[in-house]
Amino acid sequence: MLSELSGRQSALGRFSFFMKLTVAQLAEKIGAELSGGRDVGISAVEAVDAAGDSDITFVTDDKHRAALEKSGAGAVLVAKRIEGLRIPQLVVENVDAALIEVLSIFAPRLKAPAVGIAPSATVGKNVKIADGVSVGPGAVIDDGARIGDYTVIGSGCKIGHNVNIGKHCRIHHNVVVYHNCDIGNNVIIAANTVIGSMGFGYVLIDGWHKLIPHNGGVVIEDFVEIGANCCVDRAKFGNTIIGEGTKIDNLVQIAHNVVIGKCCLIAGQVGIAGSSKLGDGVVLAGQVGIMDNIEIGSGTVVGAQAGVVHNAGSGQQLVGSPAIDSREKLRLIALQRRLPKFVEQIKQLTARVDKLEAAKDDIK
Amino acid sequence: MLSELSGRQSALGRFSFFMKLTVAQLAEKIGAELSGGRDVGISAVEAVDAAGDSDITFVTDDKHRAALEKSGAGAVLVAKRIEGLRIPQLVVENVDAALIEVLSIFAPRLKAPAVGIAPSATVGKNVKIADGVSVGPGAVIDDGARIGDYTVIGSGCKIGHNVNIGKHCRIHHNVVVYHNCDIGNNVIIAANTVIGSMGFGYVLIDGWHKLIPHNGGVVIEDFVEIGANCCVDRAKFGNTIIGEGTKIDNLVQIAHNVVIGKCCLIAGQVGIAGSSKLGDGVVLAGQVGIMDNIEIGSGTVVGAQAGVVHNAGSGQQLVGSPAIDSREKLRLIALQRRLPKFVEQIKQLTARVDKLEAAKDDIK
Amino acid sequence: MLSELSGRQSALGRFSFFMKLTVAQLAEKIGAELSGGRDVGISAVEAVDAAGDSDITFVTDDKHRAALEKSGAGAVLVAKRIEGLRIPQLVVENVDAALIEVLSIFAPRLKAPAVGIAPSATVGKNVKIADGVSVGPGAVIDDGARIGDYTVIGSGCKIGHNVNIGKHCRIHHNVVVYHNCDIGNNVIIAANTVIGSMGFGYVLIDGWHKLIPHNGGVVIEDFVEIGANCCVDRAKFGNTIIGEGTKIDNLVQIAHNVVIGKCCLIAGQVGIAGSSKLGDGVVLAGQVGIMDNIEIGSGTVVGAQAGVVHNAGSGQQLVGSPAIDSREKLRLIALQRRLPKFVEQIKQLTARVDKLEAAKDDIK
Q1: Which residues of C touch A9 (CB under 8 A)?
Q2: B339/B30: higher pLDDT
Q3: A329-344 core/surface letters (b: 16 or more CB in 10 A; e: else)
């Protein structure tokens, strides 16, 4: 199996161009102190247990350090030189930051998207397309849209009326942005995501659910990154807002009029219901649900699958559905685990009281 | 930040055409009784805390009435005249219904989709396209499909063989409808939703999962509205059915052979497994899961993140996973919260019984 | 209502070609032993309670056998001849396997996708397209991609640089496959699914979340089937791997570096976080969440909505969030249900001890 996979990968290799550097060259590029041999050739990054002799790996804690002894890696990124290691070590201040640099160096080189508008794209009236923009095949850009410098609009994207997209954005294939949405600079939106569709707001009139018109828009601030197959609904009025630097994983639902602060992390399959507000730096783990009209303070972390139904302050740790403080939850789980013991204790107490009562009767 | 956002919005405003009316004109249009000045100009609807002097806002309960005193709104929709308010009041019987009217009046005016078939669309044989239909760029309509009067097929949509779509539908961009599905009149399907893909039905034969062919279809009745990035699977035989007037939010999964009644509300990220049946007016809150082959009676409401694993009658309120009656759940949660008290009580009882036993021994 | 639906279906029937066979012909085709009349005409498969006189139905257990007495079906597939049944019986060894055969025989006959590259498709340089391949309208195939014999690439698909797709695959409409992904033979991917987008891996540097470049790819082995609107993220390094014969439902999230074994079943809306590993034959029910870096042994079954936060061995049955052994969970649920009884028992014990203490005081 593994040999088959590597066969396939090397087949791919025939078409791709991969960078190859000596460890000495690599150390110089990333400003690392080199310890050990200088001439080992490196062409990729790999996990410590999968790395081969032309891969560089990395260790961030002692757990991996042990695995490193058995690793076939050609070199390693470390924060502190490890005594007695036979492979070259690139010592850096911040392994995570260095890893990003090294991964960027060895990233597969792909042909850049062609600048200009593909012949099969459809562009409306009063559209303003800045310098260096790429619009892919089959994309549709409606009247009044504006696309900033060096932004890439993938093939099959639909950009609605009066949408404003900033500079250096990457809007991947088949993304749909409805009318009047506003996307900042350096934003990435992955494939098949939908921005600005109607919110789910209905009023029951004469036994029928009537859709509330959603006149508002969506504002996505600078450096926001949104995964694939997500939905960000437009506001009833005002805007649904995703704050600067916030990152959103795949299959996430952001309902109408939600306001998300700066630098939040929102994991896969999270759902945030209408008009809820998140502060800055909030972290929502996978499959979390936030009820409508909830406020969550800055820095609060919500555990996977939790369901938040009450407002939460800053710096909280919430888990469970309905979500409560994580320490309280742990206590409750521990108590539940002790339920069988309680049963036993009650039984024993009952027996002892039975006996005491019998003894009392004897005394009488 | 806020000033930057409004800057962006006003930039958008340059391209959009927005309606502007005096409160007197607006009151006449929606049949409201006007109390206060007649000449204030209104061009949008806003929430009470965000409204400016050219916005109309609305209050539905006393909570917002307090906020209204501090609001910068130019006018307000109310159900009953509020004494001593300085801004004009439009008094209506049903604030929700009036709000929908007012939002429709101030909805951004967008260019209607062009009637006709875009040159880049692909249309098969024996396709019947009625009057006033719009087929967007890059759409593909397979042999034998029929599209009713004034329906809009967005760009990038794929409409499969023999699909029947009724009148006045809006099928948004990149929606995929597989073969032999049947969509009624006045149906809205938001972007990137998939209707009629194979259900997830496998049989284990000789150690391999073999797909059960799904010969059935999907029937979506009149006035159904489906959000973005949803999946409605086709039936093994017969049809997966979504009843008249039912509304479905984003990222919802409707499995093969599910039958949903009329006027249900199904919130974001709900999943309904194969062959389950919902009555009329059922409400499923966000992230609810319904097991396969379950029946849920009309008017039953299921709380967010609940998991329904047993049939449920009509008019129930279910919460939790596994879902139980909401009152029973509240009782259980209250009891769980009292667990630490139980521990204490058992401890005290034990001490008291210890003492009694010791005393008994003394007596002996 | 029902009459209207069947009206719609018969309208569809005008355009479709449906197979019609006598039960004798059908029995011969599938190698069944026929009991009862030979000449009944069959044109479709239906559930026992919905079948009409030109439908064949099937029974797999005694529950349906009762319903069969009341069924209007024209014939029935059975594993063992039922005495005294008035309709023809096709007796087969394996009803499930025979059902698949019969469904295939009566599947709606659709025009096969046209072999060749649609004029509106865009094909890059060094692309290798094998014999019998169909590339739909508006599809985009980037440089260096290779498509194997008789594979169908749906309209609106985007196939990235250097992607390798095997033989006899069906990549449905609007699927996006990012660069350097590797798809085996006989793979099916349903509409709007995204393969190979960036994983959700960030490092906090100077207060900003920096994306970790994802240099790895995705490997999808032979006979894998993936539903609609799914996301399979590419690896940081190495590959995200989906093992041979594994089947995945709709709206599923497979994060970066996840490794899934052979012949697993993954139901709708499941989320598997980064670097987790599943053995062979693992079953995840709907809306399950798997934490990152978790290992789950072969044959383990995880119940709907469970959240797995610890490694699990082979052949386990896990339920709940956090997930525990299903028997332990059942015990805990039973104990929780007895909490009201505990309250009562503690109350009674307290009263009895009160009395004993009072009596003791009397004695003194």
Answers
A1: 182, 217, 239
A2: B30
A3: beebeebeeebeebee
- Please, which residues 298-337 of chain A have a Cβ atom closer than 8 Å to chain C? 304-305, 321, 333, 336-337
Question: CA-nearest residue of chain C to A357?
Answer: C356
Shared-domain flag, residues A99 and A121: no
Model ipTM value: 0.91
Please tell me the predicted confidence (pLDDT) of residue C8.
34
Query: Does the beta-carbon distance from C212 to A99 stay under 8 Å?
Result: yes
C241 touches chain A (CB under 8 A): yes
Give A225's contacts (C-beta < 8 A, 6+ positions apart).
A187, A188, A189, A247, A248, C211
Q: What does the alpha-carbon distance between residue C95 and residue C58 come to, in Å, rounded to a whole number?
A: 7
CA distance A287 to chain C (A): 7
Place of tokens 């069947």: C6
Please tell me whether residues C100 and C229 are part of one structural domain. no
Q: What is the CATH number of the domain that holds C58?
A: 3.40.1390.10
Residue B1: pLDDT over 70: no
Give the total number of structural domains in chain C: 2
Q: Are A168 and A151 in contact (CB under 8 A)?
A: yes
Query: Which residues of B are designated catalytic?
Result: 256
Q: Would C339 be classed as within a structural domain? A: no
List all residues 6 or more positions away from C257 whose beta carbon is below 8 Å from its beta carbon: C199, C216, C235, C236, C238, C239, C240, C274, C275
| Domain housing B18 | 2-105
In whole angstroms, give the CA distance from residue C289 to residue C168: 32
C176, C200, C217 ranked by CB distance to A267: nearest: C200
Considering the domain architecture, whether residues A147 and A74 belong to the same structural domain is answered as no
User: Would you say residue A353 lies in a domain?
Assistant: no
Q: Is the CB of C215 less than 8 angstroms away from the CB of A44?
A: yes
Please report the DSSP string for A58-104 in residue order: E--SHHHHHHHHH---SEEEESSPPTT-SS-EEE-S-HHHHHHHHHH
For chain B, how far is it from start to end, CA to CA, in angstroms? 83
What's the pLDDT at C363? 60
CATH number at residue A140: 2.160.10.10
C-alpha angle with apex B121: B116 to B123, nearest 5 degrees?
85
